[in-house]
C-alpha cells in the first residue's frame, strides 16, 4: 500500500517534471538567443538581387485604408526588377483599384466558401505560375520591409534553396497602453530571441506569415490552400519535414503597427489558438520523428512547440507551483516544488535580461511591472481554447478604421 505522503510525493513528481522540462527548454532557448546573429555572409549575397526575378505576393482583404501606403513604401525598399502582386481577396472596398493606382499588379478573387490567407496565396501562386519568378516573398498588407530586406531574403533563399524568414516585429508609440506594449514584447521574445535560440541549437526557423521568402522550386509545391489560423506555422512544419529547413535571417526585417488596445485581445486569441492547435497536433510527433530520423531541425522544432507562449507558460507555472506548495504542506517531498521554483525563477530572470538587452524599446518599465495583470487578462483566451479553439479567420482592424463588424464567416 502507498501511504498518503508517498502518494502525494509521487503525484508531485508526475505534475512537476513536465513543467520543469518546459521551463528548461524555454531557458535554454533564451540563453542561446541572447546575442545577435552574424548574418554578414548571407547579407553580402544581396548584391546579386538585381539579377533575380522577385515577386512580392500580398494577400489583401478590405485593405483600402492602408494598401496605397504599403505599396509605395514597399516600392522604395525592393530591387527595381521586383514585381508586386496583390491578391484582392473577397474585397468589398476599393483595395484592388487603389493597389493598381499605386503600381502593383492585382488579381481579384471571389470565393465565399474558401476564405482566408492560405486560399489567397494559392490563388496568387496560380497567377505567378504563368511566368514563374526566381523567388516569392510573402507579405501581409499591413507590413513594411526593412531597407534591402527583400534583396537579402531573395538572395539567401535562392543560394540555400530553402525558405527564409525575416525578423518579424510589431511596433507601437512609446505611450501605447501597457497591454499593447507587453503584447509587443511577447512577440519580440517569440519572433526574435527564441528564433535565434532555436536556430542556433539546430532547429528550424518558424515561418511567421510575413517577410518570408521562398525559392520558386519550393513555393510551387508547398500546400497553401487551407483555412488554418496558423497556416504559416503549419507551412514551416511541412517544409521542415520535407528536409527544406527554413532559415532565420535576422538582418532582414519586417514590421507592422500594433493593433489598437481594444483589438489586441482578438488578434492574440486568433494567433494563440492557432499556435496551440498546431502544437497539440504536431509537437510530440516532431520530437519523436526528430529522434527516429536523427533530425535536429525536427527535434528542436518539436521541443519549441511544446513550450506555451509567454503568458500561458507563466500562468501555468504559477498554478503548478501553488499545487505543489499545497502538496508539500500536506506532507509530500518538497524537492519537486523547489526544482520547479528554481526553473521558474530562472525563466523570470532570463526574461528580465532579455528586456534589458532588447525589450526596452518596446516595453517601458512601468508597463513591465504590469505583466502579472496582463497574464490575468489573457486567462479568458486560454479558457476559450479549452472550450473550443477559434476556427474563424478574423481580420484585425487597421489604424484609423471604424469598428465595423466583419462577416461572421471571415
Automatic annotation (TrEMBL):
Alphabetical list of CDD domains matching this protein: EpsO_like
Pfam families according to UniProt: Glyco_tranf_2_3
Keywords (A to Z) from UniProt? Membrane, Transmembrane, Transmembrane helix
Q: Where are the transmembrane segments?
A: 12-35, 204-225, 299-325, 337-357, 363-385
InterPro entries, from UniProt?
Answer: Glycosyltransferase_2, Nucleotide-diphossugar_trans
Q: What is this protein called?
A: Glycosyltransferase family 2 protein
Identify the species of origin: Parasphingorhabdus litoris
Amino acid at each position: 500500500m502507498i501511504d498518503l505522503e508517498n502518494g502525494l510525493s509521487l503525484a508531485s513528481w508526475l505534475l512537476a517534471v513536465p513543467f520543469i522540462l518546459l521551463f528548461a527548454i524555454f531557458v535554454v532557448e533564451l540563453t542561446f538567443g541572447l546575442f545577435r546573429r552574424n548574418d554578414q555572409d548571407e547579407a553580402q549575397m544581396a548584391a546579386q538581387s538585381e539579377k533575380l526575378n522577385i515577386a512580392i505576393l500580398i494577400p489583401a482583404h478590405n485593405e483600402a485604408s492602408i494598401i496605397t501606403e504599403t505599396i509605395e513604401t514597399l516600392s522604395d525598399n525592393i530591387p527595381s526588377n521586383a514585381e508586386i502582386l496583390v491578391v484582392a481577396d473577397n474585397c468589398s472596398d476599393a483595395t484592388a483599384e487603389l493597389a493598381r493606382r499605386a503600381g502593383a499588379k492585382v488579381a481579384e478573387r471571389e470565393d465565399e466558401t474558401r476564405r482566408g490567407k492560405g486560399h489567397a496565396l494559392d490563388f496568387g501562386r496560380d497567377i505567378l505560375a504563368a511566368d514563374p519568378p526566381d523567388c516569392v516573398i510573402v507579405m501581409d498588407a499591413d507590413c513594411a520591409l526593412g531597407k534591402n530586406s527583400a534583396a537579402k531574403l531573395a538572395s539567401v533563399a535562392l543560394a540555400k534553396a530553402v525558405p527564409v524568414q525575416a525578423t518579424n516585429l510589431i511596433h507601437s508609440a512609446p505611450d501605447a497602453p501597457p497591454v499593447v506594449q507587453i503584447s509587443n514584447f511577447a512577440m519580440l521574445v517569440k519572433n526574435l530571441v527564441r528564433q535565434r535560440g532555436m536556430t542556433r541549437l539546430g532547429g528550424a526557423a518558424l515561418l511567421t506569415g510575413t517577410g518570408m521568402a521562398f525559392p520558386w522550386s519550393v513555393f510551387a509545391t508547398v500546400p497553401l490552400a487551407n483555412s488554418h489560423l496558423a497556416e504559416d506555422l503549419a507551412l514551416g512544419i511541412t517544409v521542415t519535414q520535407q528536409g527544406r529547413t527554413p532559415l532565420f535571417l535576422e538582418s532582414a526585417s519586417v514590421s507592422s503597427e500594433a493593433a489598437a488596445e481594444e483589438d489586441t485581445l482578438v488578434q492574440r486569441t486568433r494567433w494563440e489558438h492557432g499556435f496551440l492547435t498546431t502544437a497539440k497536433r504536431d509537437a510530440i510527433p516532431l520530437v519523436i520523428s526528430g529522434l527516429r530520423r536523427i533530425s535536429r531541425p525536427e527535434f528542436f522544432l518539436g521541443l519549441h512547440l511544446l513550450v506555451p507562449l509567454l503568458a500561458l507558460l507563466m500562468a501555468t507555472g504559477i498554478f503548478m507551483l501553488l499545487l505543489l506548495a499545497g502538496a508539500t504542506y500536506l506532507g509530500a517531498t518538497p524537492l519537486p516544488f523547489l526544482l520547479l521554483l528554481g526553473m521558474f525563477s530562472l525563466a523570470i530572470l532570463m526574461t528580465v535580461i532579455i528586456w534589458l538587452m532588447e525589450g526596452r524599446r518596446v516595453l517601458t518599465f512601468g508597463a513591465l511591472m504590469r505583466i502579472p495583470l496582463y497574464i490575468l487578462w489573457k486567462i479568458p483566451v486560454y479558457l476559450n481554447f479549452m472550450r473550443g479553439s477559434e476556427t474563424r479567420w478574423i481580420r484585425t482592424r487597421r489604424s484609423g478604421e471604424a469598428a465595423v463588424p466583419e462577416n461572421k464567416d471571415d
